[in-house]
What does this fold into?
Amino acid sequence: MVQIDNEDLKQVRSEFLDTPKYRNTQNAVMKNGIKKSITNQSVVNSAPFVFSIDVDSNHVLNQKQSGRCWDFSGLNFIRYHIEKDHHIKNMDLSGSYVYFYDKLEKANYFYQNIINTADRPLSDRLVNWLLTTPQQDGGDWQLLVDLIEKYGIVPMEAYPETAASANSQELNRMFNRKLQKDAMKLRDLANSDASDEKMKSVLHHLNAENYRVLAISLGTPPDKFTYEYRDENNEYHTTGQVTPIEFFKKFVNINFDDYVELMNLPGENYPYNTPFGVEISGNMVGGQPSRYFNVSMKDMEKTALEQLKDDEPVWFGCDVLQEWAPDAGLLDVNVYDWDRSFGIKLGTDKTKRFEYRESLPTHAMLISGVDMRDDKPIRWKIQNSWGTKPGHKGYFIMGNDWMEQYTYETVVNKKYLTDEQLAAYEKEPVMLPYWNAMNPI
It folds into this structure.
């Protein structure tokens, strides 16, 4: 073990005080904060908000103080198709409706995993992982698809936001405390060889309690509602009384089976053109397992470009807070001058950053356009879900170098894959452990 030596500290302090550029940075950072002080303004000025291919300029929604980005970005993808197919302007779909059933299903999924691991000690790594965070706001594309196919969707006015959905911290803390308490009961029952009938009865009771907690916090989700609207020609329409599933089938002409979730992780442990799965990565019992198809960044960019050229946005997952200038709405690897300002270099190769948890897929958004130069992407137009204040009324600019370093997932139509890739996608996936950072829950 190496201790910090006081004499060494004197030398380090002297060298720091004798270096003018670090003292200048110190003065700026102490007054204005780190990022404002080291922003490379020339990089900001060189990124105009103009795109040669511009698919979607819909108004930006706001997930507020919650982790529902995957929910909002997926619904933004769906509403784009609804508005285009049905000639509607500014249709908002309810993120809270999907959120309600995600919480309800995640709780039951947690219960099943607790029962399945009841014979393991509490010190077991998997049991500890389950109990540390029984559920949370995060998710992924396939989790959203499972929820929508089971419960449908509703417009925002049929199930609006509440204080608990806009700021989910209180709900998550309370709900996790309840689930941790429920886990004690379920482990005791499983280890006492309780009958299947007894276990089903207890689970029914616990899930009924969870429904009550969520309904109080988020509102009672509608079983039927009427949606009325005027189209772009000012013609009046009404659905009459419909269920959320009927609304989904009426308005959404998307076959989710046509889409594949691509991932990009380079390196020998992640061979390209290989399907990957993640243990315990679902959000519901009976849901489809997540499947990621690892491709080169060249193929990821190529398929995203082809989908944009066909007038369709692209759902994607990335590490949004890396090298992000919020006021400018700019994602660029050179936007901050860490080396000249602090004398340090951040980051290494993409997979090492991922494996050492320096960078993870933390946020989902929608690629809505791209600017091309000499047939190559230079910057991408990004629709976020943080309201209209950041960036360009809520839209971001993503540099292509940033995309290659910090984008981990895209969802594209299978038709953009080669025949060889499609055949490889259908193979048995390589399973990643539950603690791998690709696990959305």
About this structure: The first helix runs from residue 6 to 17. The chain has a mean pLDDT of 96.
